[in-house]
Model the fold of this input.
Amino acid sequence: MMATVYDEKIVARNCRAWARREKALISDAAPPELANELYERFKETLYGFSVPVKSGIFQAMMAVSIENDGPITILLDTKKAF
Done:
């Protein structure tokens, strides 16, 4: 499980990236029970440091909208295809 804090919000993703900067693979994710336990432990750790955190329900469905307005990331790879 990977979790990132954006503007005091925790965003959890059940995936793991390899050390050589490969794309994260959801097939290598922790089982839901373990991932939820790690997520809750991470939240409690942040609370312990008095970090104001907003979080949601683990594994809940989300409706997300995105507006791409700004820098972009372009991946170039001459050795292998994506």
User: Anything to note?
Assistant: The radius of gyration is 16 Å.
